[in-house]
Design brief:
The structure is a homodimer of 201-residue chains.
Chain A (H helix, E strand, L loop, with lengths): L7 H10 L7 H13 L1 H18 L1 E2 L6 E2 L5 H4 L4 E8 L2 H10 L4 E5 L17 H8 L6 E4 L5 H14 L5 E4 L15 H9 L2 E2 L1
Helix pairs in contact in A: 1-2, 5-8
Chain lengths: 201, 201
């Protein structure tokens, strides 16, 4: 959209909405009109919800998950299996595994994968804290649940080396995860099978 | 998404985002994660923008456009052609015509089209104010720029009857608008051609 047709307040709203993944300029305009039509039932609550989230949500200092609690609700939940840590790339992957209800273990969010070409090196990921956690006596297994991409797999190999001194079993998701696929797009059955058939590395 | 995996604040944010047109449950989760990652550069500004818009934006009492000004910036602009009113269904159609920069006239937003099956009758549309405006001496032409749908065309015919006593020329967009098409999806050339070749009814 080159030509501005609505007032600056509406244009700003459209411009910000267009920055959301999945919304382009046209769908951002439609979303803005929808919000303005549903001012009281949607726009005001969404504004409040975002403002609250922006204020309250923090990154869990232990696992890298996001939550309004710190440590997060998963790390704080003593009923969870404290002996196993599932390592994922992003919070969205953690959500995918939780939605599938296939494990009761703890998580560790790396915040990405190694990708030297993109300038992402070990020091850019949440690795030292993982090694620290894996070194505690209560933890007996680390399951590397990274995406089945080149970067994910090379990151897994790097983590196997780094975790070697920690005296824990290291496993990875079973084949069953399609090569090149991403966790967030898999069905729960595939995720469950992949966890069940995980292999020691 | 049946199983709630994030805290209630995040789940509420996702649920509200999923109500936007064009976003489903999955893309709403991705949008929420994106917002949380870009908390200061996107989530906070968007929250403020929505809160401001929800507070400030009003429906123009004259034409039915939305704006923070009342009457709206178009109705208040004395340089515009005061002799012609372009009648559209929705604000999005007004935006489409303004983006195409094909007319300098005033607008009138009906707020929908007649659709007895959906329970939308003349009294649900912004028609009395249109007749009032069309009856003023300064207005000499009313251009019916409704969608080329069955409902749009039957609404046009209804408006021709209602506007008959107003002593104005009544025109409609030229054929050139594809049958069944909607204004908001047309390119500027088509819109310009349709305005130029408008026909008296």
């Amino acid at each position: 959209m080159s030509h501005k047709v609505a007032g600056p307040e509406i244009e700003q709203l459209i411009a910000l909405l267009a920055k959301l993944p999945g919304l382009g300029p046209r769908s951002a305009r439609r979303a803005a009109l929808h919000l303005i039509k549903k001012r009281e039932s949607l726009m005001q609550p969404l504004a409040n919800s975002m403002a609250q989230a922006a204020e309250k949500i923090t990154v869990c200092p232990s696992c890298g998950n996001i939550d309004v609690l710190s440590p997060c609700a998963i790390c704080s939940d003593e009923r969870r299996n404290q002996t196993m840590i599932i390592v994922v790339e992003e919070v969205g992957d953690l959500w995918a595994l939780e939605r599938a209800r296939v494990s009761n273990a703890l998580y560790h969010v790396l915040g990405g994968v190694l990708s030297p070409l993109d300038g992402i090196n070990p020091e850019d990921l949440n690795i030292p804290r993982l090694i620290e956690r894996a070194s505690t006596n209560s933890v007996s297994e680390v399951l590397l649940a990274l995406n089945a991409t080149i970067e994910g797999q090379s990151t897994s190999h790097y983590l196997v080396e780094q975790l070697a001194p920690c005296n824990v079993k290291i496993s990875q998701l079973a084949h069953g995860v399609p090569v090149g696929g991403e966790l967030d797009f898999l069905d729960e059955g595939t995720l469950a099978a992949a966890i069940k058939a995980r292999k020691e590395m």
